[in-house]
Amino acid sequence: MDVYRIERSTKLVLAHHIGNRDGEHTQRFLDKLKDAVTGRFQLTSDGFPAYQYNVPFTFRNDVAYGCLIKTYSSTQEQTRYSPATMVSAEKSIAYGSPDPDRIGTSIVERVNLTLRMSLRRFTRLTNGHSKSLRHHIAMQNIFFATYNFVRKHSSIKMTPAMASGLTAKPWTTKELLEAAAEGQINVDNQASDVRPRKMLHP
Q1: pLDDT mean over 82-105
Q2: Residue 72: which of 56, 63, 58, 83 has the closest Cα?
């Protein structure tokens, strides 16, 4: 699984993880997310059972948790690479008291589109795919660090790091690489993660 969470107002990617879609890797990802947030917040996921069990266990009273469960048709009418047709989407309250109007996955799905359009490693039937898991993880680390600190978001007219108060200006790619080399941001290929550690001034 390639999974990540984004803060809806600042567009900051809080944590991401690459691993198997199972309980162990779900918990690893949630532990990263717990390190990246403070206070009580609302979270939305799909209906994967590992989320429904581990989210309340990890965050306890600090989370209001809702699920958006999408149902897709079992057949694809065109080719095997054509996306399946969504036939229904159901919101449910999984834990706490989430605002039903804020249960949704559209923002993270838009980041997913940006990721797949930006990295050729996700393009099917080409030689641009990752040849190793290590390189796949490294490229996603670079993408999310650039997304947070370098690339201005079109809707908020600044970088997510600026909107979150982590930095006062957009970074250049050079500044990003220097900050990573100096340990100002946490870039861990084994954990597949890029997170800011403090208010940063390159």
Answers
A1: 88
A2: 83
This prediction's pTM: 0.82
Domains held by the chain: number: 1
Give the HSE-up count for residue 102: Cα atoms under 13 Å, Cβ half-sphere: 11
Give the angle subtended at the CA of 166 by the CAs of 4 and 43, to the nearest 5°. 35
**Reported confidence tier of residue 85, pLDDT bands at 50, 70, 90:** confident
User: CA-to-CA distance for 1 and 26, rounded, in angstroms?
Assistant: 9
Q: What is the DSSP letter of 60?
A: G
Structural domain boundaries, residue 27: 2-196
Q: Find the angle CA(135)-CA(113)-CA(136) to the nearest 5 degrees.
A: 5
Residue 118 in any domain: the answer is yes
In a domain, 201, yes or no: no
